[in-house]
Amino acid sequence: MTRRERLMATLRGETVDRSPVSFYEISGVDQTPDNPDLFNIYSHPSWRPLLQLAREKTDLILMRGVGFQPLSPDPLAELTREQTVLSDEGSQLTTRTIAVAGHTLVTRSRRDPDVNTVWTVEPLLKNVQDLKIFLASPAPGPDGPPDVSEITNAEGTLGDSGIVMIDSPDPLCLAASLFSMEEYLVIAMTEQRLFRQLLDRFAATLLPRTEAAAQAAPGHLWRIYGPEYASPPYLPPALFREYVCEYVKPMVASIQRHGGYARIHCHGKLRAILDDIVGMGAVGLDPVEPPPQGDVELDYVRKTYGQKLVLFGNLEASDIENLPTDRFAEKIRRALAEGPDRGGSRFVLMPSACPYGRHLPALALRNYEKMIELAGAG
């Protein structure tokens, strides 16, 4: 089978020659080792063997978004100012200021040259009063038609080596990320009516966009991220149903109405909310983290939900960097034994995330190589 055929058969629950193996974000396609940009960690020579391994041996799943051209200008864009400077230490510091109804909301972020992530130093919304100000700001205007050129271009690059996955937040992700984690949890628990207004505001834009994108790019795998903001122990299952299920279920319906495959991305403890996740109708789930990060094993999920789910996982990124290869191999073998259904399908061997430091440890490379070896992808 080609790598593309293997992945699509896995999504459909058909017989495959082996379980697909993915390095998640690491593809060797999207990473550019020759780019001299100060913040490109993949320019370090330690990454090159892994990028080549990913490009040549893994079943590639490239994440892409769908662009939209507003029919009318975004009113918030007119009110937003952004400034980026380099600190003496070489970090990129970005400040965004939004002027709303006589008030000023500010958010600051930091990006360090040796770490492939952006840190929120100051969240946009600090308290309930800021939330009320934000809700009073003008709502975004309607969208024009979706632009799926990133998807078609990526598919041209991939050929038969993999598939494109459309990546989308849910309303909860957009809402919760406006706050610090502490303030989000307090408001989500104590100001439920107000927080629902925020979710409704984002859903009013996101749900039509999902429908339009699913129609314009049918038949694709999607990843919906954000539900983990409401998973235990952060919030009780009742609020998971209110803040996640009510909004994600219609997203899933749009995706799968147009022949797509919705996959829920949710870290952490899942046992108390698995019925709710399955009830949303999604085809896939990742990363199904084992204890102690999570509270279920692949074996439990497969035996409980049978052929209802394609499981993506469940190797911890921290284990890739820190676990001796012989012990990491045990976890790979267990995942390959427990993840597939009785027909040997509906499972993709995959880590929960990937290293994000400039220097890739030699141990991590050996553990990635072991994934390829034991999955039979060599």
Written overview of the protein:
This protein is of the alpha/beta class. The protein folds into two domains: 3-69 and 145-375, TIM Barrel (Alpha-Beta Barrel), CATH 3.20.20.210; 72-141, no CATH class. The protein has 14 helices and 13 strands. The strands form three sheets. It has a seven-stranded parallel sheet with strand order 1-8-9-10-11-12-13. Strand 11, helix 11 and strand 12 form a beta-alpha-beta unit.
State the main characteristics.
single chain, 378 residues, alpha/beta, TIM Barrel, 2 domains, 7-stranded parallel beta sheet, 4-stranded antiparallel beta sheet, 14 helices, 13 strands
Describe the protein's topology.
Blueprint: H1 3-12, H2 48-57, E1 60-64, E2 67-70, H3 75-79, E3 80-86, E4 92-100, E5 103-111, E6 118-122, H4 128-136, E7 143-147, H5 149-158, E8 162-169, H6 171-176, H7 181-190, H8 192-216, E9 221-225, H9 237-257, E10 261-265, H10 274-279, E11 284-286, H11 298-305, E12 310-315, H12 317-322, H13 325-338, E13 347-351, H14 362-375
Parallel strand pairs: 1-8, 8-9, 9-10, 10-11, 11-12, 12-13
Antiparallel strand pairs: 2-7, 3-4, 4-5, 5-6
